[in-house]
Backbone:
């Protein structure tokens, strides 16, 4: 189970924006998700709201096709598909987008924020700049970022980690993201 800044990182291909004005029939939007279709999952709740609003404000112009549970590849593979234009949207963790847009990796910096409110305030203040980096470096636009808390280190009761020295000798798995590995 992922317990880190999880992003509902919705990326839109530039081609979609161009075809929107030209298409007379419904526009197919292929959406990849790393999570299953559980009704309670926060990403699915947010995705359903996005679909509802997109259909409302576009007069039902879209045909959203959701592929959950990594059916279209892992999160980094879906970013490559977005860049190629074979996929229109993806819901993934920010740490899996950072290799494509390194400047956006700041949201995954451990211990940078003291509170969730502090993180959210900085994210709001830097929204346009973050999206500029996302488009320039990774070729995708971020529509929303959801947070579920900070990255946590979970250990056994026999070996609790309360300070840095307690972590000595423990192997810690990290995503393949240079910032988080370092």
Residues:
């Amino acid at each position: 189970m992922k317990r880190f800044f999880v992003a509902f990182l919705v990326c839109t291909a530039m081609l979609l924006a161009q075809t929107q004005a030209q298409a007379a029939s419904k526009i197919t939007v292929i959406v990849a998700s790393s999570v299953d279709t559980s009704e309670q999952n926060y990403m699915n709740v947010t995705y359903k709201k996005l679909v509802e609003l997109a259909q409302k404000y576009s007069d039902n112009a879209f045909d959203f096709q959701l592929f959950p549970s990594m059916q279209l590849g892992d999160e980094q593979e879906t970013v490559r598909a977005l860049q190629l234009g074979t996929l229109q949207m993806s819901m993934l963790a920010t740490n899996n987008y950072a290799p494509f847009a390194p400047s956006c990796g700041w949201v995954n910096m451990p211990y940078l924020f003291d509170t969730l409110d502090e993180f959210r305030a900085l994210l709001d203040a830097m929204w346009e700049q973050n999206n500029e980096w996302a488009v320039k470096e990774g070729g995708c636009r971020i529509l929303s970022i959801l947070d579920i808390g900070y990255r946590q280190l979970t250990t056994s009761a026999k070996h609790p980690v309360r300070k840095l020295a307690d972590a000595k000798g423990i192997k810690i798995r990290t995503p393949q993201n240079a910032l988080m590995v370092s």
User: Anything to note?
Assistant: The CA atoms of residues 156 and 170 lie 11 Å apart. The helical segments are 14-22, 42-58, 75-84, 94-97, 116-125, 127-138, 178-181. The radius of gyration is 18 Å.
